[in-house]
Amino acid sequence: MPQLLTTSSTLMCPHGGTVTIVTANSKVRMGGDFAAMASDQFLIAGCTFNVAGGPHPCVTVQWVQTAQRSKVLQNPTLNTASTGLCVAADQAVQGAVQIVVTQQRVSGT
């Protein structure tokens, strides 16, 4: 069963940028960290992607597949099977987010 994501999960864009999770959840914790929700902000910094020699970095993640059954504060949660797309400021999709590390105690679909 897929593990649920928290605010301390490590996510990256396909070009090496790091994702910071800014959550509105201040109530539900898993292993000491707040549960991540699809409605949260997922900001990307440090993306080095270039198009035609000019910078075109990923800036945020848009989730297209969330956990199907688990919710926090009536918002879908995210798990290691969720699919998120990294997008640039002009909303161009630039690849799938990579879930590198997450907590191992709580799973959910």
Helical content class:
under 10%
Rounded mean pLDDT is: 94
Q: How far apart lie the N and C ends?
A: 7 Å
Low-confidence stretches: none
Main beta sheet strand tally, sense and closure: 3 strands, antiparallel
Estimate what percentage of residues fall within beta strands.
35-45%
Major β-sheet strand ordering:
8-11-12
Structural shape: elongated
Count, helices = 0
The tally of beta strands, per DSSP, is 13
Radius of gyration, Cα only, in angstroms?
14 Å
H/E order of the elements? EEEEEEEEEEEEE
Structural class: mainly beta
Layout of helices and strands:
Layout: E1 10-12, E2 18-22, E3 29-30, E4 33-34, E5 41-45, E6 50-51, E7 54-55, E8 58-65, E9 71-72, E10 75-76, E11 83-88, E12 93-96, E13 98-101
Antiparallel strand pairs: 1-13, 2-5, 3-4, 6-7, 8-11, 9-10, 11-12
Question: How would you characterize the overall build of this protein?
Answer:
The radius of gyration is 14 Å and the shape is elongated. The protein contains no helices and 13 strands. The mean pLDDT is 94. A 3-stranded antiparallel sheet has the order 8-11-12, with no helix packed on it. A two-stranded antiparallel ribbon has the order 1-13. A two-stranded antiparallel ribbon has the order 2-5. 0% of the residues lie in helices and 43% in strands.
Task: Summarize this entry quickly.
The chain contains no helices and 13 strands. The protein has strands spanning 10-12, 18-22, 29-30, 33-34, 41-45, 50-51, 54-55, 58-65, 71-72, 75-76, 83-88, 93-96, 98-101.
